[in-house]
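Final report, Chapter 2: Outcomes

The project's central promise was a pipeline that accepts a single protein chain and returns its three-dimensional structure in a standardized token representation, suitable for archiving and comparison. That pipeline is now operational. To close this chapter, we reproduce one record exactly as it appears in the project archive, with the input sequence first and the structure output second.
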Amino acid sequence: MDKFIEKLSTVASKLANNKIIKVVSSSLMALMPALMIGSVGSILQQIPFAWYTDLVAKLNLGPVFQGMVNVSTNMLGLFTAFSVGYHYAQGEKKDGFTSGILSLIAFLLITPMETVGEGWFATTNLPLTWLGSTGLFTGMIVALVSAKLYCYLVDHNITIKLPDSVPPFISKSFTGIIPGILVSLLWVIVNILISLTPFGNLHSVIYGLIAAPLQNLGGSVWAAVIAQTLTGLCWFCGVHGMAVAMVIAPIWMAADAANVSAISAGMAPTNIITNNWIQTVGNIGGAGATYGLVILMLLAAKSKRYKDMGKLAIVPTIFSVNEPVTYGVPCMLNPILAIPYIFLPPLLIALSYILVTIGILPVGNGIGAPASIPVLMGFFNMGWRGALWNIVEILISVVVYFPFFKALDNQAVKEESGEAE
């Protein structure tokens, strides 16, 4: 067991410290405000009250709310290109803004535009087709390559150097000119070469050969169960569970964005396994789905130790902060709690998936509430049925944790009795 934990910790640590994974993770987290704007716009389109829908129609607010989705969720790939370029250069101690702008330009260079009209009346448009979730992986790859090339050129002084007497803000602006031209030429050449193939553009290549297969793989319930199990193992071993989540989160976030876009366009969402859905049904109360454990400590503990822990942990747990439980009980490296702590979240995900497939629960709408929303995050993702299912999940958590907690509590009672004697 010790050897297994040591190997798992080593692998998780390498993943957590991998430069590319860290850049992608921090870049996507930085886009949360944009995703929330899209979520709000989608919510405002879906409120199912007749008086509200009549008011929206009367004031012609539908296009306004759709606009909120279009400029946020439906441009996720565009924002990702800038964010990844920015964070990569920041990690290399280079000018993040210049790198982000060059990555954004590179993304736009390989994105096909369309011409409407003829002659003097012709206009060039940039359709949303590849700017949203379908362009997410392209944005990541193009930005990583562009940012890496930018940093390489700066490191090797392939830049315009101005005298020291020139103010720094002016000198800094000239530094990116040569790297910018070379980065642009690279993607122009790539674009020309791919246009000679049946794919037509780089988006089609990446989405067809990489993104779509990855989304199909990551969108399976088995991938979700395995990922959640590995996440639980990491937490149990004292390694932050984000070490696993960072790898698969881009796939699930793209699925969320696709669901939001579908609903805002008047279509039904089709992706069951998404990032917000996983957080909604798999982590009730935080990692390990420890809501039931906290309730048991609060209401059923006989030992003073766990009675006090229950009082301390209940408020943080309500807001999905369970570090007090993970490190205070502790759940980490606690053999008695290993089974429920590691395997309860995957079980909840599997049960939730079954309920969606048989029609008891709806497919998630792609909308996520902040993790600190108390208790019933399911309401934001699946409506009243999602909130009701969260309550059922809490009861399941109580039942699953009960025998393990009783063993833990009895052990604590014996220890306290021995100390008293």
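Archive annotation: The longest strand covers residues 114-116.
This record, like all others produced under the grant, will remain available to the consortium after the project formally closes.
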